[in-house]
Amino acid sequence: MVEKRDDRVYRDRRQEMVEQLRRYGINNSRVLEAFLAVERHLFFDPESRDYAYDDCAFPIGCGQTISQPFTVAYMTSMLVERCPAGKILEVGTGSGYQAAILDYMGYSVYTIERIPELLKRSSEVFSVLGLKIHQRLGDGTLGWSDHAPYKGIIVTAGAPEPPSSLLEQLADNGVMIIPIGGSVGQRMTVVTRSGGRLERESFHAFAFVPLIGREGWGE
Ligand code: SAH
Q: Which atom from ligand 1 is nearest to the alpha carbon of 101?
């Protein structure tokens, strides 16, 4: 069970994290407010919580990582600028931190994770924080068709190409934020649907764990 604590030390460290994000060019006030409010340390094991506010990725077990704060802020900024509200599908729940940030910002959040242990741990944190985030175990490359279409889809693992099932579940004028590339590095990519047309734009380079599934990488 995850224990809730938010002492002054963590609050000060969150403030420092937000100042650093600002220096790195993150300037959307809704994003910065969410980073200040969401208790990132609760998404870490109790013995690792002191690392929660460092700007680096951190192991969360099962060979996976929680993305560094800058990466989460970057993806979230890309999303909020193009899709300020609505239903969002996240592929790759991991620690649950990205989903919690989106929930705080008022999105209705659906998230899929393929590793049962990570799904279980993130759902415990969501329940401690009282968050109503919809979760499912499964291959997120196939999306979650029951709740489609989504105004936004955010994929937090690196893919060879945007999965076609996810493109089909994107609403008209919806946007998908997804790192696309090889297994070593990817470019953050924005895919927008308008009418029957899909547009694709590439941005900065990142290094994500692989998106593993039927429309991603093999096991
Ligand atoms: N958003 C996460 C980052 C998680 S790292 C956070 O805030 O902590 C990427 C996650 O994607 C890992 O947990 C990995 O297990 C998961 N993943 C990889 N391929 C997947 C797939 N096809 N479906 C669902 N989850 C997947």
A: 7
